[in-house]
Amino acid sequence: MLKVPEHQVAGRQAIDGKLGPLIDNSGHFYKPLQDDDERGTRELTFYHSFSSNTRIPHHIRRFFPVFHGTQLLKASDRSGLRPHLVLQDITSDHLNPSILDIKIGSRTWYLEASNDYIQNCFHRDKTTTTVSLGFRICGLQIYNESGFWKPGRKLVRNFTADDVRSVLRKFVSSNVGPEPDCCFAGSVYGGCDGILERLLELKTWFEDQTMYHFRSCSVLLLFDKESFLRGKTPFAEVKLIDFAHVVDGNGVIDHNFLGGLCSFIKFVSQVLADSKGSTMEDKI
Amino acid sequence: MLKVPEHQVAGRQAIDGKLGPLIDNSGHFYKPLQDDDERGTRELTFYHSFSSNTRIPHHIRRFFPVFHGTQLLKASDRSGLRPHLVLQDITSDHLNPSILDIKIGSRTWYLEASNDYIQNCFHRDKTTTTVSLGFRICGLQIYNESGFWKPGRKLVRNFTADDVRSVLRKFVSSNVGPEPDCCFAGSVYGGCDGILERLLELKTWFEDQTMYHFRSCSVLLLFDKESFLRGKTPFAEVKLIDFAHVVDGNGVIDHNFLGGLCSFIKFVSQVLADSKGSTMEDKI
Known about the structure:
2 copies of one chain form a homodimer. By secondary structure, chain A is α+β, with helices and mostly antiparallel strands. Chain A has 2 domains: 22-88, no CATH class; 98-283, Inositol polyphosphate kinase (D-amino Acid Aminotransferase, Chain A, domain 1). Chain A contains 10 helices and 11 strands. Chain A has helices at residues 39-52, 58-61, 115-127, 129-133, 153-157, 161-170, 185-188, 195-206, 225-229, 255-283; strands at residues 22-23, 28-32, 67-74, 81-88, 98-104, 135-144, 147-149, 212-214, 218-223, 237-241, 246-248. Chain A has a 5-stranded antiparallel β-sheet with strand order 7-6-5-9-10. Chain A has a 4-stranded antiparallel β-sheet with strand order 1-2-4-3, covered by helices on one side. Chain A has a two-stranded antiparallel ribbon with strand order 8-11. The longest helix of chain A is centred in the last third of the chain and has 29 residues, at 255-283. The N and C termini of chain A lie far apart (56 Å). The A-B interface holds A 106-107, 111, 122, 126, 131-134, 161, 207-208, 210, 250-253, 255-256, 258-260, 262-263, 266 and B 106-107, 111, 122, 126, 131-134, 161, 207-208, 210, 250-253, 255-256, 258-260, 262-263, 266.
């Protein structure tokens, strides 16, 4: 039985008769291929290329959803059968996951795109944190005792640098009020299995790989606060998603993604450093 | 006695009665402050801030020309007295230096600039290698036995990725023909005092510093082929120049410069790796 994903925080959603992704109970995520432009074809081409590419190190493959090919399915907009990408549902192992969707790069357009597309992106990039920070938060949900804090798209789009800092603090806090306690920062961002270490792994690969340029691609951070509260092993994940605008790297590193990733890493590091500082002060 | 710099490869030049920098015989470089826009003021503000900033590590300060304040001098366009920045002439210690001037970053405009300025930069960035490679070569001169190879501005502006690779090979070759021998690659780009090591040092700083954003700033590579040929110690340098568009970092790393720098580092690494490969093959 297919259903609308419960934990989707950005992108097109299969609600109100619109076209969007679906999930099943076996951990699959079905993403409809767009037929009105090249996006669908480009994303499918990427998954085919990536899954058969022997130059992708094993530890890097883990950052990508598993690809299970395509399948004809009844589209969510009731327009009939349509090919869907069959991907791993990366939220299926999580109970009430807190999620951040961060579009990486200080430019979302690319030279191969149409003029209209470039102008739209150019305007959006200037009026969000994309140009200033090298990334922007596209969507989020943060779990707390009373449910999810999931600000609306308009609010998210208007985030400033300070809002981004605040969200990164709230993500690893037991509270989402004006003074987040950052009590999970050490275990979620820090440590050898933490998000910061994963992001640094990704950075090292991007300093070298010249095969793909990941335009308009997101880094998804997932973390399961409830497991922590129940004393279970930390289970924080970093995944790349959305490859509808991936283009050939042509032997050049993806400096746009890499620069943005470094900026994001600095933001995460600062939250981690500040949280250590405050813990030290608390002890004194 | 002030004169026009012999080794200027990019920027405004003090020729044909135009306004441009001058040098003396004591190793000083006099850069006129523009009075038609904010560039001069911004560059002066940067030098004042940077030279008194105690958070700049000693090994990073070496990448910047020494600043000796300002001085009123007769301008090269004969418009009378005008304030000039008094800087270190970084070419003065070199005999026939080969020079590359590389404007770093995949975007030369910045949010604080005027709309006209942004549109001009946007167009230039798209039509040069700035967007595609994250940097562009702005000017160069490469010394060889018959003198300097110094392609004109129009030619340089039309450089493709392959032209850039070719220039980086010619820079460390004894010849500038279609098959450069890269015979100086190991000593100029490689080694613990080589250009690659210096660029990596710079990269490490840019991964951390959030004080300045270096828009439209150049990395200058200098290297003295003749000294090599005479059996002298290698003397390759990396310097940052042109700070007329430096803006406050506001606590965010300069992801635009960093991304471009990483891309440039990859290009240099590839020339070095290829030259090692060919040396190995030659030996077999």
